[in-house]
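For the sake of transparency, this paper describes our internal protein records without simplification. Such a record has a labelled line for the sequence and another for the backbone structure tokens. Nothing more is needed to write down the fold, since each code stands for a local backbone conformation. For reference, a complete record is included directly beneath this paragraph.
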Amino acid sequence: MNYGNKILKETTLIILSIIIIFFILFFLNGCSLANTKNKISYIVKTEPEKAVIDFIDAMGEKKPEFIYDNLLTEQDKNNISREKFIKEFNIILNDIDEIKISKTVYLGYEKEFAKTVAEFNVKYVNGEVKDYKKYIYLKEENKSWKIVFEKTFF
């Protein structure tokens, strides 16, 4: 009987913790159920997928400096200065109003790179909306995942 009560208390505590976390995420995001769902799904993504999500979110938030500082490989940084990257990326981002990720899937390794596919739509400032499906290659550097721009975009 004592053992059964212990399991019931632990199960109740786990369920209560999950509910509390859900409500905290819900209210911290302005009560947006879609944002809460995205935050919860982010937690269960692979590290390469999280890097891709961070990359696309940074584009949507128009933060090329975040991309350069946190998501570019050292090799890519050696090929372009921070100032030039930010300037050129801002030109691209000026035409974008909003980016929404619909799906990311980690596909495993292709040679020495991790490969992730991202599906997202872009709403441009002229009102046009386009859906994209992009294979993004990543490499782990200093215990974090970086987008390999040269392989992904060129």
